[in-house]
């Protein structure tokens, strides 16, 4: 079955700091250096785990870079792999076609790579080929969009999508309460409504709002694209003459959402974004528009996935843990970025 998923299929909450903390935890207690580029990149702390070891080939498969977040995922994975003289990075052609990604992963299995890092277009549809890799003795590091069968991966690393919704809902709820707003009109612009990650984000958002006595007035998905973001936001703006708050799940599609808001000349509400893009963080820092915060879901997780793949392939564990092996699941935290802390997060933002 051919199915194209334009982008993140399951995602966590954005975890800018969480990812950075994990990268350091893999090897050292030393603080990570601040990346100098706009795209988030991991740093390597010099400890025994980072000393050259057994040569390993790490296969990598991800969707096509049709968005800033996915582009940063691929860049971070490649950049991190170059930090190690004992790692050969073997990426396959990125694609948004399910069948093509399955074929690409099968080619890596046939090449007998030491480990596989896979960000699937759709975890359920690639579950079988991931299980095939595991059955062949190739550990799979499942990045972001999860495989439903736990036997299909050795370790999963990704964001906390439910926590992402909670972070956004908490910010929205508290802000409205502090303003003394009652019966607010709260809109939610999702990514792809049918994805488990989206459902988790929406549930977290609703649960957090409930603690303040609020509910979502209306929601619609925008498919993680700028074009759909513009169209969906336009429709919602036309349907609601008064709005108090909007949560947009994704900063990439947020470019379109903000364009629609500007075109409609609306400013009576505030907006919260999602993922932590550099352009969103810059807008928040400038404090000149409706975007007042974003909740993180950082592509630095790809850097951490490469680190984990190397450790697993070489039979090592995380040096800050007592256990001798890498955990089977690592969930990154979702942080809330506001104008007060925007400059701290900007170096880790990805360009949309």
UniProtKB/TrEMBL annotation:
InterPro entries: Peripla_BP_I, SBP_2_dom, TAT_signal. Keywords: Signal. CDD domains: PBP1_ABC_sugar_binding-like. It is found in: Cell envelope. Its main location: other. Residues 30-47 have a biased composition (Low complexity). Residues 30-52 are annotated as: Disordered. Residues 58-316 form the Periplasmic binding protein domain. PROSITE patterns: PROKAR_LIPOPROTEIN (PS51257), TAT (PS51318). Pfam families: Peripla_BP_4. Residues 1-32 form the signal peptide. The keyword Ribosomal protein does not apply. PANTHER family: D-ALLOSE-BINDING PERIPLASMIC PROTEIN-RELATED. This is ABC transporter substrate-binding protein.
